[in-house]
Fold this sequence. Notes:
By secondary structure, the chain is an all-alpha fold.
Amino acid sequence: MNPPTPQRTGATAPSRVGASRSVHALGPAAALVAVTAVWGSTFVVIKDVTQTIPVADFLAVRFAIAAAVLWLLAPRSVARLGPVLRRRALVLGAVYGVAQLLQTWGLAMVSASVSGFLTGLYVVLTPVIAAVLLRESVARATWLAVGLATVGLAVLSLDGLAIGVGELLTVASAAAYALHIVLLGAWSKPGHAVGLAVLQMAVISVVCGVAAVPGGVVLPSTSEQWWVMLYIALVAGALAMLTQTWAQARLPATRAAIIMTTEPVFASTFGVLVDGDPLTPRFVLGAAFVLAAMYTAELGPRGAREGAVAHLPGE
């Protein structure tokens, strides 16, 4: 994936290879941070819209617009995938769509804070699923980062927790998100990000549309709602999915999951800056844990193998 590093005698060559890989991974890591910042911004603008439009309807329309616009910009992108990658894109879209619906159904039964914490448990489940599916060993430093991120999520969002149907549905959504992260990392190809993104979003729209059909699909009714829909569809949908697909072709799944736990940090930051939410010690402490996790996973020392993107056995 990276250009070969000239080998020199002595013990310095392996460390230089690892350093080179770390530098080359900073671009995809920064891209994922930007994606989570965009996702975090949506919490501020989406609140009013989802009070009048059911979430499944909103998701179906959002991803349909995103897929259509991205396909119009690159109409041959799907044809370039080939049958194997097209089938994989269908699986990825179905997994992500199911995750969205499980999270939505769970949110109807639990508080937003509990939902945010339980959904964020994908950071714990991602290395577990990667170890099972990819036979990928997880370094101790990575588990430390996972632990720091989980503590940060708990501090940021958790006020109390009881186990019921809503909590179980939300944990199931976290498992589906983790599976999507692992499969996307294993199946993404650097040159096919657009086609994979288009098909994934089309399938997500279909999955969410099926859930929306029984009550009839509700569309935005005001120009303000349409502007919000377009922002969510094009920036937080098409551009974010394209960027995530591109970045995960270059980053191991567990590191990607840890980076993406910055989403609630950005959500809270936008709440403070835009909605006037108070800047509490709890937010500062939780954000510090999440950022420490990202530093440990992304900038801390690791061997050369930990920087490689794993693929499913036999591929």
